[in-house]
Amino acid sequence: MASLSSQPSKKAIRSPGGSTNSQGSNRNSTGQTVKFARRTSSGRYVSLSREDLDMSGELSGDYMNYTVHIPPTPDNQPMDTSVATKAEEQYVSNSLFTGGFNSVTRAHLMDKVIESEVSHPQMAGSRGSACSMPACDGKVMKDERGADVIPCECRFKICRDCYLDAQKETGLCPGCKEPYKMGDYDDEIPNFSAGALSLPAPGEKGDNRNMSMMKRNQQGEFDHNKWLFETQGTYGYGNAYWPQDEMYGDDGDDGMRGGMVDAGDKPWKPLSRVIPIAQGIISPYRLLVVVRLIVLGFFLAWRLQHPNNDAIWLWLMSVTCEVWFAFSWILDQIPKLCPINRSTNLEVLRDKFDLPSPSNPTGLSDLPGVDLFVSTADPEKEPPLVTANTILSILSADYPVEKLACYISDDGGALLTFEAMAEAASFADLWVPFCRKHEIEPRNPETYFSLKGDPTKNKKRSDFVKDRRRVKREYDEFKVRINGLPDSIRRRSEAFNAREDMKLMKHIRESGADPTEVARVLKATWMADGTHWPGTWTVPSSEHSKGDHAGILQVMLKPPSSDPLFGAPDDKIIDFSDVDIRLPMFVYVSREKRPGYDHNKKAGAMNALVRASAVLSNGPFILNLDCDHYFYNCRAIREGMCFMMDRGGEDICYIQFPQRFEGIDPSDRYANHNTVFFDGNMRALDGVQGPVYVGTGCMFRRFALYGFDPPQADRLPSKETTEMQPLKPTDFDPDLDVNLLPKRFGNSTLLAESIPVAEFQGRPIADHPAVKYGRPPGILRAPREPLDATTVAEAVSVISCWYEDKTEWGDRVGWIYGSVTEDVVTGYRMHNRGWRSVYCITKRDAFHGSAPINLTDRLHQVLRWATGSVEIFFSRNNAFLGSRRLKLLQRLAYLNVGIYPFTSLFLIVYCFLPALSLFSGQFIVQNVNVVFLIYLLIITICLIALAILEVKWSGVGLEEWWRNEQFWLISGTSAHLAAVIQGLLKVIAGIEISFTLTSKSAGEDIDDIYADLYLVKWTSLMIPPIVIAMVNIIAIAVAFSRTIYSSVPQWSKFIGGAFFSFWVLAHLYPFAKGLMGRRRKTPTIVFVWSGLIAITLSLLWVAINPNANATTTEAGTGNSFQFP
């Protein structure tokens, strides 16, 4: 890490490009240019000459905002790195980093992030007491507990910048005028947290190899691992590097007697297992699929051999539709032949990775790191309170704190989202320890405090009721602050803008300039510290709009220490004396956007987070969530890790969790729960090559996202090599030229160096002979490197709009571009390279989210999904073009993904067929004979039996299955049809498809949580189902009247046509209820247009064929009736 003594404080900013030249773990930048500048109160940067700086005399706060990294030279040596590390971490966490295309990367030191007070020492804006230097308004550095860091024994309080200046100029403390000494401040003591005190090994006495504790690494800190290795010393029992020979002797007499047992000495147990479906269910199910397939073949052959010569057009349309439906059923049904269930063992995971052992006396976790991504784009459609609650549930997840890193992607660049996230980080100081202390579940505060029932159930501590009451009061105040942020930002910005206007008018009067020729002050949006927000302004302007703003990165919560940090009884309003109060790392990211660049919507935002997180934390696994999907099960990450860390888990590309939704009406009118897909189709694919990726609630292997193939033991170096050191990227992809790494991943050296590290750390532990591709135990217990400004600046550069130019991001690497359903395409690419995925259904739902219960919003959501499927069908991601690594049943499933919207063309026709049959007096068969009825009966019985068995093995309710069938017809005649039309327009005419963000906000009626259900918003998607319903109703009435007044009524044809019409209308019943609304709010024009179209079609048919049944009306007697 670059030393902070090499940073001229208060005066300089770094130029772009320097961070990309960093090498190795030191992250030093070379060839940097120093620019001197000052930031005005309006946020603009004014270049200054060296003379201007020397003549300024007074160190103004304007010069506190910038830093520069200069390589150490003989006259510029690093200072005490322990102090430097703390200073650097505080500087990073209190700075807002901005940059982008053709611009300087700047670090703006923020005195205040939000209006409210910040208390947690990890959080941005948390700073110590005032600096004692004259004319300095800086704050003293803080340690992990929030106490002031005072580097001199005279207790002279000094801020980071003044400390750097004193170190560089004289090396003397400004208070006592004595030289600073290494290790003179309170925290500079040996750290024994990684193990017990130094003791002789078992069986030895007076071992002189336990050397002095002053042995340090290059950073001046005691290196326990190096000491153990070089001296063969011990902490507690044994040594992880040099185990005593007699400890594990075969006779057992001289071995370890009592004490802790290493995980490797226990019987090996799997972390997960596959539970097959009971043969009494799956065997009849498969048999019925075969029977129905055979019967369908015979039925279609009979239909083709027996045309209806009286209405050949009706017969041809019906047969064509039936053949397509059979083909569509095969694509949907065949991949369901191999469903499985899975279970995990969290106790075994804990024993292997978290329990203390002779080689790990304090129980430091050996689990790999996880980076969590949350995406949001518009605070108006995605309320900040919802996003904040999601963040709080993530920060309180049950996983080693030092292994977690949370990233929020604000694609709108809104100050409202930024300050809401800062408020969430501040409230996490209370909420997260409260959840750990009382084992709260779920850990979304809004959901938790809304639960009905006894909150004290299963609670063991006597102070729970008192703590809950206090946290509830604080949360209510937190909600008030979040909901008041829009008004607070508006008032603040108006006040600052008024001040700027007054300054401008004063300048005009003093200079005598013409007011009409002077440019007006832009209506800026202002941050809490009184400077311009670098992102999107409320009143958009150049470089401050949704599609035109700089890249922004703020470390809201700096990385925690590797050792537990317990609270003090009087620190908070709640006693956390026995609770770990550390918080996971939390970073706000808003990627740069500029006009003329294709930013690729959500996929582009996710790829920006992949790159930024690789530079900052580089977790081997990535879990992405939508802003409205929160942790309902705090152990969800551990559940997924049971598969990734198990034997054979090295070829798993992602773990997909099912989506569960809240706020759905009890009847689930529009099949929002989608349980047939999540509990049926996805569970079945888990038995093939794995479930498809559905956009949220998915834990990825970072290495798989980088576009590499799964590991193959025969193509890799020897086992000894692969287990003891990370491999190079070319070891996984022989066709990859090292010199072409920038072409694939971009020109960031730190990003390229992080790839093999992430791969190595993501391997399972090699604790079983069958694990051919693992890592040695214990290597992930080392603490994470602290962040420095150079690293954060590099992260800013990789989220710039130009970084992906001429690279393979979005084409092979990361989330794939080119479709509005980038999730399905991304998962398909991984399966196509030979990876497999796993479906993780937990006993307690892993995540909960929201879904649109309004009919219009639901149809638009389905339209987006179907449009993406059409794009997939016409792209190179069509499963027809898949590689041989894609299994047959998996290929059929992906084919169905691209083909299912086209079923709407045949479904529309088939829904009109009953009406046409009733109008014409004909039927799809010439005679409703016994053979036709037998075929129809067998197919229907098979369908019912298959539905019942599928309900059995999937756990789906029969009513849920029926709701799914109903909405399949509703969406198939509306959204799917529109998607096919839009997809064809894009392919043929190149017309782009607009993407509508699904609203996550609640209805206006706060007294009714289902208010949105009754809200009717007009959309053209409603026209086809309405026309189908009205035409069928009119056809039934016309045919019934004609049959009654006919001299020779043909009731069989009427009943046949009416039966199919009622079948159509029964499926459209939820749609009709949705149109009615609560107070019949349906626009009149909807009924007018639909009725007009239906009547016109009916009269058109009558005009074309006025006498459809001449034999029945040729008598023309007075007691007969003929439709005119």
From TrEMBL:
- In what way does this protein cross or attach to the membrane? Multi-pass membrane protein
Residues binding UDP-alpha-D-glucose are 375, 381-382, 411, 601
Which is an annotated GO molecular function term of this record?
cellulose synthase (UDP-forming) activity
> Among its keywords, does the record have Membrane?
yes
The record's Gene Ontology cellular component field reads: Golgi membrane
**Pfam families for this protein:** Cellulose_synt (PF03552), zf-RING_4 (PF14570)
Which residues participate directly in catalysis? 411, 823
- From start to end residue, where is composition biased (Polar residues)? 17-38
- Which GO biological process categories is it annotated with? cell wall organization; cellulose biosynthetic process
**Disordered: annotated segments:** 1-38
Where found, per UniProt?
A: Golgi apparatus membrane
> Which keywords does this chain's UniProt record carry?
Cell wall biogenesis/degradation, Glycosyltransferase, Golgi apparatus, Membrane, Transferase, Transmembrane, Transmembrane helix
Protein residues bound to Mn(2+): 602, 626
Q: What transmembrane ranges does the database entry give? A: 285-304, 311-331, 893-916, 928-948, 968-991, 1026-1045, 1051-1072, 1084-1104
Summarizing the function annotation, the protein's role is:
Thought to be a Golgi-localized beta-glycan synthase that polymerize the backbones of noncellulosic polysaccharides (hemicelluloses) of plant cell wall.
UniProt name for this protein = Cellulose synthase-like protein D4
Q: From what organism does this protein derive? A: Escallonia herrerae
